[in-house]
Amino acid sequence: MTETGPLAETGAPVDRPSTSIDVRELPPPEPLRQTLELLAELDDTVLVQWNDRTPQHLYPKLADRGYEYDTVERDAGVVTVIWQD
Predict the structure, then answer these.
(1) How does pLDDT run across 35-53, given as a tens digit for each residue?
(2) 52/24 Cα distance (integer angstroms)
């Protein structure tokens, strides 16, 4: 699936495959856990996470693992795009 809207609003590479995860309805810490588990399965794929709030606890874990990320607010929630450089 290609998420050109959120990708175009961030610094994420648009020439890679992308996939989405929607964690808007999940209670903490499920959004964090599920996002990190999915990232561990992806190679060169950009992950687009849809959330109902800014995933502040996710950011340091992404940085520790060497991921780049950018977050934008949309009408449908907060979108964090995650990729490896």
Answers:
(1) 999 999 999 999 999 999 9
(2) 5
Spatial separation of the C-alpha atoms in residues 8 and 77, rounded to whole Å: 17
Whole-model pTM: value is 0.91
What one-letter code names the amino acid at 16? R
CATH number of 4-84: 3.30.110.40
For the chain, report the end-to-end CA distance as a whole number of angstroms: 20
C-alpha–C-alpha distance, residues 84 and 34, integer Å: 18
For the segment 51-60, what is each residue's pLDDT rounded down to a tens digit? 999 999 999 9
32 has pLDDT over 90: yes
Return the SS3 of 83: strand
DSSP letter (8 states) at residue 76: T
Q: Where are the domains of the chain?
A: 4-84
Contacts of 61 (CB under 8 A, 6+ apart): 32, 36
